[in-house]
Amino acid sequence: MKKLLLISLTIVAFTNCAHTQWLNLFPINHLTYYSENATNKQMLILDSLLFNTKHGGLEQMNLNDFSISYHWNGYYKIKSIVADTGNSYVYLRNNNYIGRLNPSTQEYENIWPDGLQNRLKDIDVATDGKVWAVTVFTNKIAIFDGTKWEEYDYSQYSYNGFNKINLVNDTLAFVSSGTSQFFAFHNGVFDSIYVHSDVKDWDVDSNGNLWIAANSELIHYYNGTATIYDETNTPIGTNKFDHIKIGSDGHVWVSGVSKKLLEFNGADWQVHSLPSNYVNIENFALDQQNHPMVITNDYYQRQVYTFDGNSWTTHLMPFYPISDLKAIGINNSFNPPTGFFANDEGIFKVNLNNFSILDFKDTSDFKYANKITRFTDYDPSKYFPSYGTPYGVYGLTGFKNTQLPNLHINHIFYNNGTYYIATDSGLVAYNGILYNIINTSNSPLPSDKITFVTSGNYCDYNYQNNGLYIGTDKGVAIYRDAQWIVYDSTNIPIDNFNVTGILAPCPTEDTYISTLGSGLIKISSDGTYELFNTSNGNMLDDTLYYVKYVELSECGQNIVLGTRQNGIIYFSIWEPDQFNYITNYGGVAITSSTMAVNGSDLSIVATDTLNYLLSPCGIINKASINRQLKWFQQGSLLYVLIPENLYGSGNIKLLDMLGRVVIEEQTNIQSGKTALNVGNLTTGVYVFRISNGKKFGFAKVVVSNYDQR
User: Fold this and answer.
1) What is the DSSP string of 544-613?
2) Residue 687 reports pLDDT greater than 90
3) DSSP SS3 for 706
4) Among 583, 611, 574, 618, residue whose Cα is nearest residue 596
5) pTM of this prediction?
6) Other CB atoms closer than 10 Å to residue 572's CB: what's the count?
7) Which residue of 235, 277, 429, 659 has the fewest CB atoms within a 10 Å radius of its CB?
8) Which domains does the chain show, CATH number per domain?
9) Cα–Cα distance measured from residue 402 to residue 509, given in angstroms and rounded to the nearest whole number
10) What does DSSP say about strands 637-641 and 347-351: parallel, antiparallel, or unpaired?
11) What is the per-residue burial (b if ≥16 Cβ within 10 Å, else e) of 489-514?
């Protein structure tokens, strides 16, 4: 029985599971094949762990179209997944338990009894349904017959404990130890069979042929004889032997990290090269026909390659958004530009070039990481930004929450060495040493409940007169040139002056204020104001969650607003009376609660139920930050599959990795794909981009012109 270790992927077959959205760009190191006998359906079960952290889960992928059909939360720090072919179970192992999951019914139970010692290292399942497990410290092999566990002590054979088990048949298992010793276990008896250092992976067939991938060597051991394969008698070249699988036909498949798989039929070697030169193999499995399925990583996206015996087919791993975002932070000074996304699980650190997850932190790493209300705007932190919670500020070195007048944090803004912290009982300015509190007792603030704070200085450090803009639940106070200017209901007669956002006059000449109930306020440089709300017919929704400035070369300079009931509003700063509304996407109503701007490229909009990628001129894609267009190359032609929402007149660009346009065409697409002649381009990675007004799609493509190699 095959299985997965560490961060893993199992192919299984189960039906009729509801769809749950999730982000799936975690590293996938191991996979195995499974097919449900009763229905002959084939599925992937993905362990979507990130760096072996608490965040994780299982995803069910349909192998017919490689779509995710179900997600199970709550399976943490999984180290092994084994699919039981005969009984339609999936067994999950971490260091402390073995769980049995029925994906068809979603029933789950822990079958590892409390009385047995923990520190589980590996599991396998026999064809008779018995579960075999090995532990360290207590040095035991344990076998579960469905009702009880039976233990066998092996401490006299391996001081360091066994770390892997593979079943040869229902009564014979091969196990390996931490010191690279191999043993056969049969009817309670251990026999030492082989020793080799630097073991990367190993497998055994039903006849007891042991194959070991050992970096620069491949070892075949059988009946006391070891045969060594290396670069002198295999086509491995400079690659390494990292992963190994034995097919039911006896063929041995091995891979390193490069794009090649090697197949050995007992006499001859055959090389199978993946269609892309720019991928690294993470691992592979063999299906019922002994055809490989390969998981790769090209550092931009993860893909599944399937082989039918003659040719390869590429399947992009599906992307699903991080759901229910509470806060977004962006740092464009990082390389690559980095986004921070917080929900009730923790903090996701994301590469904004390709929207792959770089890291994840939960409450075991950062206090109240699941309760974040706000990341610090323009935080200079090197790795993770500081953040606010209902329980104070965290992630800010040297900061003491005991100095706060109130622990509920509404906003944090960093500018020129000072952190401005908005609380329910005043504004705190912290410069690393001193804590200065600004409230109604020492300033003309309209209220002590500070809801927002910003400055125009961050836009142009040479222009120092924009001052500090402080929003409260009863108006705005501006501190500039040692003078206070206050706007509240006494000089701007509105019913609800609860400020949710302020766009200071940089780069615009006007100040824009979003409110929670009275629409948008525009204050000109001469102090006059203009209201945009439902009462004067200029707004469809008076409840605004934020106001942001976004600029793209294709769409100009725009102001973007998020509303409670009417989606996203955007308008040009040159045409402030012409509002554009995005109220739903794909039939789903939009409630936009927060947003972050990625500077020169795209903006990320968080909603109550979905996430969007936004340009100033409209929504690009729902729940598809990384759902790139599919593509393939035949000869000199690069084909890109175009969805229906991008049909019609549009612009196509192909850019190199320096951002230079190498191909540009105007097109009118009426069918499902378009073709570009790339025969004159140098082999390498490019970005394909198509736009038709308010929507665009993109794909990171690899052009392979073999005659240039």
Assistant:
1) EEEEEEEEETTTEEEEEEEESSS-EEEEETT-TT--EEE-EETTEE--EEEEEE-TTS-EEEEESS-EEE
2) no
3) helix
4) 611
5) 0.56
6) 17
7) 659
8) 112-195 (2.40.10.500), 327-622 (2.130.10.10), 631-708 (2.60.40.3080)
9) 39
10) unpaired
11) eeebebeebbbbbbbbbbebebbbbb
